Amino acid sequence: MKKIRLMIALLGTGFLVLQFLGPDKPASVPAPNLSGIPEEVNAIIRNSCFDCHSSQTTLQWYDKLSPANLLVYDHIQKGRKALDFSKWDSLAPAAQSGILFYSLNKILENEMPLPSYTTVHPTKKISDGDIQVLKNFLVARTLSRPAANKARPQLTGSAGSQDAPSRLPVRPAPNGIEYLPDYRNWKVISITDRFDNGTMRIIYGNEVAVKAIRECKTNPWPDGSIFAKAAWKQQTNADGSITAGDFVQVEFMIKDAQKYASTAGWGWARWLGTGLKPYGEKAVFTTECVSCHSPRKDNDYVFTTPFTFKN
């Protein structure tokens, strides 16, 4: 009995000592609501995302106890580094939309909020109703932005046809990257859709990228890896099926850690429509690309999860 009491006393003393030796609590500064976002959407994001993805963190008493706070504070630091909603107003509209779409995808994949977080913070869970609110908002946000649609030329190509006149001269991107017409002969590494802007995409990878996928060496991707993401408008047919409609654009990511060190190690380029008009007026357009992909910094700035290839 004395041994048990002694053990309890030692454990209690050790626990108390830990409270004075724990890590520094992350700073918490009030963060405003996201501008241009409806109140009901802001409420969901603030409740379920702000604790780890903004400058404002509300900690429960048990979050502050050592050694649990080691894990909690680490999550907060990594979360802010990956995505900080406090910097919302500094982002371009395209980057804001990309972050919202990325966040919703993480929610749909049950990756966010972290299951370990919602287990001890059940009020932070995102319900099916919340998800529907987010979906409806993203769809409405896209439809209510005619300026974004107007920026694209009238398109006529389709996925099943010669979607881009590659035999015609194509001007390089403003940063000097040349158009790569042979991307259609590369291996398809993923297929995605963006319900928020009504497009479907096919992502192609060159031989270097495919080799990296086979060898599971994709974070970081090796120099020489190139992705081509071709997008078409979704076309809803009379029978309810969805097929590729007008060709929208093709964009490239070219990995060269040294050459493109100033743009996160990637060369970025995009051509719009069947006329293959280079996107952007000046080379600085790449800052928009990096900003949009910044939530995936820990994944070498790549959104795409490639197919698994067997040798």
From TrEMBL:
<feature type="domain" description="Haem-binding">
    <location>
        <begin position="12"/>
        <end position="142"/>
    </location>
</feature>
<dbReference type="Pfam" id="PF14376">
    <property type="entry name" value="Haem_bd"/>
</dbReference>
<feature type="compositionally biased region" description="Polar residues">
    <location>
        <begin position="155"/>
        <end position="164"/>
    </location>
</feature>
<dbReference type="InterPro" id="IPR025992">
    <property type="entry name" value="Haem-bd"/>
</dbReference>
<dbReference type="Pfam" id="PF16694">
    <property type="entry name" value="Cytochrome_P460"/>
</dbReference>
<feature type="region of interest" description="Disordered">
    <location>
        <begin position="148"/>
        <end position="169"/>
    </location>
</feature>
<dbReference type="InterPro" id="IPR038142">
    <property type="entry name" value="Cytochrome_P460_sp"/>
</dbReference>
<dbReference type="InterPro" id="IPR032033">
    <property type="entry name" value="Cytochrome_P460"/>
</dbReference>
<protein>
    <submittedName>
        <fullName>Cytochrome P460</fullName>
    </submittedName>
</protein>
